[in-house]
Design goal:
The protein is α+β, with helices and mostly antiparallel strands. It has two domains: about 80 residues, 3-Layer(aba) Sandwich (Rossmann fold), CATH 3.40.50; about 45 residues, no CATH class. About 30% of the residues lie in helices and about 20% in strands. The chain is built from four helices and four strands, in the order ββαββααα. The chain has a four-stranded antiparallel β-sheet with strand order 2-1-3-4. A hairpin with a 2-residue loop joins strand 3 and strand 4. The chain is globular.
Length: about 130
């Protein structure tokens, strides 16, 4: 047995959008060096889970670890170990401009307060603060 922690460990993760349950007690792990694909029907919770792993959404129930680093306890260290490959090189059109900034900031380990500061600064610089 290896002492290497899983590359990704999801334990008891649940998420709701108001009354709608999107994820219900999801648990799995991906071994370090393994190749994994997340497949499912539309509405199955793939994007929700991805948004929790990358901290676009706050994790309220369960634990997510990246190489043993708890995403809630030490998000910077966990996200620094995470690589993300997008399907295409575009912004998410379902998100607002500000939400896209926050999403990409989270992928790069930028905290929420700093992301908010940078977002406000960038939007003001291009006269789009009122269209965030």
């Amino acid at each position: 047995m290896s002492d290497t922690p899983p590359a990704l460990e999801i334990s008891g993760v649940s998420h709701r959008y108001g009354a709608r349950l999107a994820l219900d007690d999801v648990s799995f792990s991906v071994a370090s060096g393994a190749f994994c694909v997340l497949l499912g029907l539309n509405g199955a919770g793939k994007s929700t889970l991805f948004s929790l792993i990358t901290r676009l959404f706050a994790l309220r129930r369960g634990v997510i670890k990246v190489l043993g680093r708890d995403l809630n306890l030490n998000p910077g260290a966990a996200l620094a170990e995470l690589g993300v490959v997008f399907q295409s090189r575009t912004l998410d059109l379902d998100l607002s401009v500000a939400q896209n900034f926050f999403y990409h900031a989270a992928l790069h380990g930028v905290g929420r307060k700093e992301a908010a500061r940078r977002t406000a600064e960038l939007l003001a610089a291009v006269n789009l603060a009122d269209r965030a």
